[in-house]
Amino acid sequence: SYEVTQPPSVSVSPGQTASITCSADKLDDKYVSWYQQKPGQSPLLIIYQDHNRPSGIPERFSASNSGNTATLTISGTQAMDEADYYCQAWDSSTDVVFGGGTKLTVL
Amino acid sequence: EAQLVESGGGLVQPGRSLRLSCASSGFTFDDFAMHWVRQAPGKGLEWVSGITWNSDSIGYAGSVKGRFTISRDNAKQSLYLQMNSLRAEDTALYYCAKGQSGSGNTHGMDVWGQGTTVTVS
Q1: Are A33 and B107 a contacting pair at CB < 8 A?
Q2: B30 near B95, Cβ under 8 Å?
Q3: Which residue in the set B35, B110, B114 is minimally distant from A45, CB to CB?
Q4: Which of A25, A37, A51, A95 could pair covalently with A43 via S-S, beta carbons 3.0-4.6 A apart?
Q5: Positive or negative: CA dihedral A97, A100, A105, B3
Q6: Does A43 contact B95 at a Cβ distance shorter than 8 Å?
Q7: Do A45 and B108 count as a contact with CB atoms less than 8 A apart?
Q8: What is the pLDDT confidence band of residue B72, given thresholds at 50, 70 and 90?
């Protein structure tokens, strides 16, 4: 089965840039989405089709996908960005696969 | 405003069955693929199953294939998940989620319900 790997945790200071990676074989052949989930809340789509932001998602969230790695970047990280982040890959052969999630701590 | 409301969760014994429902509102249900995603207590997200807008393509995670069946009723704007032969490891919060496209998942899942809890014990 297709496996997508994320670091369990990432820490960042307020105002700095956070980068969360998502790794899998030939990941750039797939469509990658990113979700933010805060405690007690349902996931929120923040990036789709590798780098597109849904309406209402702040510009400080950006993403890329190249080779075997997709990266979510949060510029000027705020305390409110502290959450779990999940990448999700899709193509017609593997269907939907989520990464294990990354806990972002803003300290 | 697009909304999804799940129901049907509960406590069930191993080996028994349960049927989850997801009622939609605020969007044209039959234009979009739909998915079930679960989250075990303290764990990450796990895709369970997805169905295209017209039900002509269905997918399942390996962990549920042969035990779970996804279906939809576009006239009722509802999504379902029939879960048979339930196991302790199926215990989770089950989310219904709307795809941004009619088939596949090129654009991610942009609307999520609050989830319904299934406990197998």
Answers
A1: yes
A2: no
A3: B110
A4: A37
A5: positive
A6: yes
A7: yes
A8: very high
Distance CA(B45)–CA(A13), nearest Å, equals 26
Query: Which residues in chain B touch residue A96, judged by CB atoms under 8 angstroms apart?
Result: 35, 47, 50, 59, 105
| Model confidence pLDDT, tens digit, residues A2-29 | 999 999 999 999 999 999 999 999 999 9
% of chain B residues with pLDDT over 70: 100
Confidence of residue B104 (pLDDT cuts 50, 70, 90): confident
Question: Over the stretch A66-107, which tens digit does the pLDDT of each residue have?
Answer: 999 999 999 999 999 999 999 999 988 889 999 999 999 999
Query: What are the DSSP calls for A41-80, one per residue?
Result: S--EEEEBTTTBPPTTS-TTEEEEEETTEEEEEETT--GG
Please enumerate residues of B whose Cβ is less than 8 A from a Cβ of A: 35, 37, 44-47, 50, 59, 62, 95, 97, 100, 104-110, 112-115
CA–CA separation, A89 and B65 (whole Å): 19
End-to-end Cα distance, chain B = 37
Contact B95 A1 (CB under 8 A): no
Reported as half-sphere exposure (CB side, CA atoms, 13 A), residue A40 has a value of 0
